[in-house]
Structure formats: structure tokens, C-alpha cells
Amino acid sequence: MGERIIEGGIFLASLLAIVVLLGIVALLLRQGLPIFSYAPPWAFLFGTRWYPVSEPPTFGIAPFFVATLWVTAVATAVAVPVGVGCAAYLSEVARPAIRETVKPIIELLAGLPSVVMGFIGLLILSPLIQSMFNLNTGLSGLSAGIMLSLMSLPVIVTVSEDAMRAIPDDFRQAAYALGATKWEVVRYVAIPAALSGIAAAIMLGIGRAIGETMTVLMIAGGALAVPVTPTVPMMPMTAAIASGIGNAVRGGLQYQALFAIGLLLFLMTLAVNLVADTVLERQKRKFQR
Amino acid sequence: MYSRIITRKWLTLAIAALFVTAVVLAGCGATPNGNGNGDTLSFSITGSNTVQPLSVVWAEAFMNQRPEVSIAVSGPGSGVGIAALIDGTTGIAQSSRLIRQSEIDQAQANGINPYQITVAQDALAVVVHPSNPVTELTIAQLSAIYSGQITNWQELGGEDLPIVVLSRDTNSGTHVFFKETIVQMRGLPTEDKSLEYGPNVLFLPSTSAGINETAGNPRAIFYPGLAYVTADVQALAIKRTADGPDVLPSVETAKDGTYPVVRPLLYYTNGAPTGVIKDFIDYCLSPAGQAKVLEVGYVPVQ
Question: In this model, does residue B302 exceed pLDDT 50?
């Protein structure tokens, strides 16, 4: 009897998660889609002018979209080599004692509040970037991307390390028996065999970087021009929503436009997470015996 | 091992109990809050980040005189405050810009009747890095900087450096006021309502972020309220027209009307204030209340 109550409870809990997700999607669609009757989808997606409080308002989100791409690209370019290298070290080289100390510390990085990362970026990283690259201002996509890379590092390290450790030991032993060095094992055995797991880790890291808001709001600079390089100030999609939603009159055009950005953002992270999920599933099946 | 699981279970229970208590307590605290129609002894003030420090000082002084009253003050931005007034979730909306016609229509559709009271004035300073040789600008030059037509300090008599143009984001009443008064040059013969902030302008989430960047960047220019100007940045003298006098921002020059960038700081209530909200606003406008305005760094109303 008790068993059945618990079963029912767990079922309801999982149902609740699905209902909430569907509710959010419905809300995004309901609030966001009406903007397309004012601004046609192509003008909305490819327009480069965003003046929501002018008369008449114009809504073009190309600057935000490109900014999100830049920031995510920088974050990925920094986090992937470091993260995969770190995972290879932990899985293939480090003694168990070191692994057991280092891994929790890296995971702790995931627990740092994003506003703290924003502060660090504002006070330390952004002046450094400005003087290093001789920029007009350190508030740029580059600074934001580097801070984001620190935030997506934990998931990349953890998931890739798990993938490498899941490789059957026979593989390594066979390689060592053939006279391979540690580096050759990492390069020609561990990384190729765990590639789908690493790919999933990278995808999850990208998903984290796309959705992050507070850090990019604080240090990406918030300029409305379409950024041509990552070293200029820019406003990614999340920052655009956060810096506009407080002022938007409920149900007004700006409100609808911001919800439409949210919808696009949701679709992007959904796509990235779906790819990650599929790849991860494939990795799991690979070594099932 | 087993005992550890037991302890964890108790810990979880204890945390859950704490959480429930906190939620219940918060709920109790919130009930008498209401929307502050005047019959309650607690109400909230929300809106402008600029008016925020002033409202905090007034609220503290008023609560000292009337211990039974409780006032909650928050400052996410003028637009947020007016939106809260329209939704009926705040007693007073504090704002650093006039309410828009579209907002009045929205409010009336919700059965809310915005009532405007000018409680103080603020001078907007234009600040640069202390090492910047430029010491004065005309409104037309400022407009050209912020609309993206002038992009190098050399064109203004400074060094050969690009200008990093800093602004507040659209949540801010200061953003709108500065656009209308400076970028579009309201009241000048050159007024042009089609001018907008240029694409090179950086929109920052707070005034302190702008001050922070200006203090560390010799290429930056920013427009904080007078109360936010620190020794780390240098305020520029503003000329209304090229042949006019150059005036530095201060309480005196704002009060006598010679400084050109002065704006009213406003409270909006639902209809003319009554009850405790009226008492509070009467206090704000009293000589004692207006003395606090000077302490905070703003300009009293005449």
C-alpha cells in the first residue's frame, strides 16, 4: 500500500515537471508570437535596429543574436581545450588521491553565483583585457566570453572525465602493451573512444553559456551595433531581455518582442541540449555489455 | 553508515521545517501590505534608481516619527515603478521622468488614476575621466557624441582617442530624460525628434557601473545624477548654446536655473494621496523633508 502511494507521488512529481515545461512554452508562444503581426519574422530576426521606446518603435534582434554567437564562441574556444585537457589529466594521468581532491574543487566552480562572476569580470578581467588588447573599453564580448568559459568549465570537465573513465580498461592496457606512452594513450585511445561523450560535454557547456544572463549583462558592454569582432561592446539576447523587461508595459509591443527573444533563446538551448542528449545516449550504448 | 543516513534525514526535515516557517512568516508579513490605498499603515515605494536614495532617507526619518508605519523602498528603474503602479502593486511609484500617455491609458484601463507630485529636482552631470583635457561641452556637441556623429575626443579639443559613450539602459528614467533633453536637444532651435542614441552607445544596468567605468577609462563619457558624482570622475561645464555661459553642475546652479540639465523627481500615486501616504508626502515637502534633499545631494523644490 505504502509502496503505491510513494509510486503515485513520484509519478505526480514527474508529471508536474512536464506540465510546468509545457506551461512555460505556451506562455512564451502566447506572449511572444503577437509581435510578428507588427514586425514580420524576417524583419525581426535580421533587422539591425532595436529602438523599443521610440515612436514608432523598431524591433530588429540581429545585434543580440550575433552578440550571443560571439560570446558563446569565445566561451567555447576557451573552455573546450582547457576542459578536455583537464578531464584527460584527471582520468588518465592523475593519481586517484589527486583526482578525488581536484574534481570536487572544479565542481565547486559551478556553484559560484553568476553575479559574483560578473563582479570579478567587472573589477579584474575587464581592465586587464582593455590594457592587454589596447581596446577602447574592456566591457566587451571577449571579457564576457572568458567569464562564461569559467562557468561552463565544470560541466565540460565532469562529463568528459566520466566519458573517458567509462572506456574499458582493456583498451588502455592493450595500448600500453604495444608500447604506447601516456600521451599516446590519451591522444589515440582515450579521446577518440570518448569522443561522443566529450561532444555531449561541449554541447552542455555551450547550452550553459547561451543562457547565462547576469554575467553578460554586467560585462558585455551593452552596445546596440551588430558586433563585427568579439572585442567590441555588445548585448547578448539574455542581457537584452533582462535590461528591457522591467520597463516594458505588460502586453505592449516591447513586452511581446522580449518574449519572442525568449522563445528564440529557448529553441536554441533546446536544440543544443537535444543534440547533447542524443550524443550522450550513443556514448552510453557504445560500452554497454 | 546507517546513522549517517538518519542524521541526513533529520537535517533535511529541519531545513524543510525552517523553509515552511519562513514562507509562512513572509506570507503573514505581506498580508497587511496591500496596495497602499491610504487605509493601511504600511506601503511600498518602488521605481527610479535615482530617487531611491532620497526615498530611503525620507522613509527612515518618517518611520522614526511614526513607529507604527512601515515603508518598503526599492529602485529597479522608473519604468518598473510606473508598471507596478499600473498593476496596483505599489502605493507610490518614484520616477525620474514624466509618465507617458500610453502608460496613463493603461493605468486608466486598470482603474488606476496616476497623480503626479514633484518632490525634488536633480541635475544630471556629464562626467569624464579626470585626465581628460576637455572641460566644457555644448548641448549640440553632447547630442553629436550620443547620436554617434562625433566619435573622437580630438574633434572636441581633446586627445586623439575614440570616445567610449556610456548610457543607462531603457529601464532607466534617466535614459529617456537624457535622450529627450540632450540627444534630441529639447527647447533649442536645433531640436530634432528623430535623433536616437547611436549604435556605439554602451547601455549599462546601473549608474554605479557607469561611474566605475568612467573612473578607470580616459576615453569614457557618462551622465550620472549629481548625487552620484565622486572625486574619481570629473564633471564637465555645460553650455546651452555655443555663445552661452559655461555652467558647472551644483545645487546652486540647478536651483537658480542656470544649469541646463535639470529634471523633476516625481512621485506618482493612485489618485490624490490620502491617509498615511498623504502624511508621508506632506513630510517630504515640508522644510524638514526638503532639508534632507540637500543632504542626499539633490535640489529642493522651490
Answer: yes
Quickly tell me which residue has 563619457 as its cell.
B221
Mean pLDDT of all residues in B161-170: 90
Å from A36 to nearest chain B CA? 21
For residue A225, give the chain B residue with the closest CA. B199
Interchain CB distance below 8 Å, A139 and B169: no
The tens digit of pLDDT for each residue in A246-280 reads: 777 777 888 999 999 999 999 999 999 888 888 87
Q: What is the mean pLDDT of chain A?
A: 90
Hey, are the CB atoms on B79 and A248 less than 8 Å from each other?
yes
Coil vs helix vs strand at B237: strand
Nearest to A223 among B170, B199, B219 (CB): B199
Contact B213 A137 (CB under 8 A): yes
The 10 Å Cβ neighbour count of residue A30 is 11
Single out the residue of A210, A195, A198 nearest to residue A151, CA to CA: A210
Q: Which fold has domain B127-260?
A: D-Maltodextrin-Binding Protein; domain 2 (3.40.190)
Question: pLDDT tens for residues B204-251?
Answer: 888 888 998 999 899 999 999 888 888 999 999 999 888 888 899 988
Q: Is B255 helix (H, G, I), strand (E, B) or coil?
A: helix
Q: Pick one of 3.30.450.90, 3.30.530.20, 3.40.440.10, 1.10.3720.10 as the CATH number of A8-286.
A: 1.10.3720.10
In angstroms, the separation between the Cα of residue B201 and the nearest Cα of chain A is: 5
Nearby residues of B187 by Cβ (< 8 Å), 6 or more positions away: none
Residues in A closer than 8 angstroms to B76, CB to CB, are 246
Q: Quote the pTM value.
A: 0.78
